[in-house]
Write a structure and sequence with these properties.
By secondary structure, this protein is mainly α. A hairpin with a 2-residue loop joins β1 and β2. α4 runs antiparallel to α6. It is globular and about 65 Å long.
Amino acid sequence: QSCRPSREMADAAKPKMDFRTMFFFAMTLSLCLNTVVCFIGSLGLPFVKAFTLVTYRAALMSASVAFLYRIAYSLKPPASMMSIAGWRASLAPVLNSNGAHYVIYSIVFAMGRPVPTVLFPLTICGGYQLLTIANKHFPATLKRVRGDRLFALAQQEMHRMMAMCATMECSMLPLLMMELFTPARSVTRVFLYVNYLRRRYACKDDTVFRIKYTYGNAGQFHQQVWGMLDQKTSPILRRVPGIDKVLGPLKMWFTQGAAPMKTQ
């Protein structure tokens, strides 16, 4: 009984969740739980296997709804509702945000068969949002389950985790291209995803859900991935006659609009 007053005082001291926080908590929790079930189901377990597709799409839907909600309340209408230039200026930062990009990402992969690894970049970002909310609103509970250590480690390693997300996003392109040689082929998906990766390369947004990166932005992490790929493949590609005439214009198109990558 002596512990009860202190617990009640601690509960009273905790900041109350507003609607937005509760919404993001619910959506990111749904994203993470559905990803876990989808991954377990993909391993072929008899009972869970039946839920692979539904949990895969539920995870994509949960992430998309959260991102669309953030876009909706972040959008600032222009002073003149009839101004086309004003709407372009208002929509530009929203359409070039991580949220809008991840909605496109979710749509591209919702059209095909379940690929659980597709969910990992979304789930990593969702996990950060979930841990941040838990650390702020349920610190005692988080500490009880050693979640405070996980949160501290996640903050410390955030730049590596965001780099991993960029790597996984880029690694999905070969998967889509290989599907062109199967009955599941879709040229439209490949076209959409190449344009998605191009947008990611130039993305200057440093927030995802409601979390701010500890270092850099989305575009810088994608530039690092493509830079490493270029270093590894350049010695081989140089041996191919006339390859520069093909790859040169493609590189210029792909990197157009990207800010120079900053170094630490």
